[in-house]
Design a protein that fits this description.
With about 220 residues, the chain is mainly alpha-helical. The protein is built from 10 helices and no strands. The longest helix is centred in the last third of the chain and has 31 residues. The relative contact order is 0.17.
Amino acid sequence: MTMSEDKRPIRSMISPVKAKLQKNFEASDKDTAVIRAMKQAFTNDLEKRYAGLDDLFYTAAALDPRFQALPFLRGNDAERTFTSISAEATSLNEKATGHPAEKGPVQTDSCQTHPAHEDQDITTDRPQTHEIPTANNLPCKKKKTSALDQPFGDDFEARSTAARSLIDQARDEVRRYRDCETLPLKSNPLQWRKEQQDLPLLPSLAKQYLCMPATSVASERVF
């Protein structure tokens, strides 16, 4: 009844409601034999209905700002869920942009930016002076390269750096999202997502998980 009467019975509600039902179905010393049997039957029925879908529902609940604290999870399930969200948000945005991330400025060492002394033109008319070696003009040691460095080195190093940057961005965004205050239960999580301009990666992922209803009862009542 909780989900069927809600105006937005989205999938993120399943895990919190299921956890609450399981809590209520726990046997008590005051229960009669009939009540115990009924509670056990209800619990077994819940487990059959949602077998193998826990990770899906945990992620949906975590992306809903009303349930982001995940108080119904035990042990490391909450941390594992948000770690999975960070990885999934990274992958989703890589597909959307067509590349891991925008390439930032590439830092180069003095060996790359300055040609070696032996390659420079030396003017004989200019008096020769003895230059004192400094950190900037010391001769550079050439990096050892393999046969794959020349054709592929620059491309794969740049992609690796960009990918790490996007992963770090997703992790930081998840951390800031978890620091946000939990919304009241009557709030609209989808509307809240639209207003969060400082969380650019998570909305696309949240839409995929929160757009599906948790029950068909609400739509069937229309007919």
